[in-house]
Design a protein that fits this description.
The structure is a single chain. With about 120 residues, the protein is of the alpha+beta class. Helix content is about 15%, strand content about 25%. The chain has two helices and eight strands. The strands form two sheets. The protein has a six-stranded mixed beta sheet with strand order 1-2-3-4-7-8. Strands 5-6 form a two-stranded antiparallel sheet. Strand 3 and strand 4 form a beta hairpin. The protein is globular. The N and C termini lie far apart (about 30 Å).
Length: about 120
């Protein structure tokens, strides 16, 4: 289900550890909060660095759009709900680092992202 079957050598791994919404990871001197954002896939999460005012949004939120949902367990409506209820409540000046493309801010996406209207 991870789409690696499209490549010559499919990959499947067993995680050392799993995370859930609200977990705070302490790594390399950072406190990183896990925010569940299902939609791109059922297990999608974002990682918030609150003190640094930064969030890594992966394939959930991009500059001007959201991630694709035509993958196993993906769902457009669920992703839009995740963005509106889990990400758009964060500080507007929070910098977003998506999985692809250029950085943006929560405020910019609230104002201009037409995918989640």
């Amino acid at each position: 289900m991870n789409l690696s079957k499209r490549f010559k050598r499919p990959v499947s791994v067993v995680p050392d550890e799993t995370v859930v919404d609200g977990d705070v990871l302490e790594l390399a001197g950072f406190n990183i909060r896990v925010i569940e954002t299902p939609g791109h896939t059922s297990g999608s999460v974002c990682y918030e660095f609150e003190k640094e005012n930064v969030i890594f949004t992966g394939d959930t939120l991009f500059n001007g759009t959201i991630g694709r949902t035509d993958v196993p367990t993906g769902d457009w409506e669920t992703e839009c709900i995740s963005v509106k209820t889990r990400l758009f409540c964060l500080p507007e000046d929070m910098i977003c680092y998506p999985g692809h493309g250029t950085t943006t801010t929560i405020g910019r996406e609230k104002m201009y992202n037409t995918a989640v209207e």
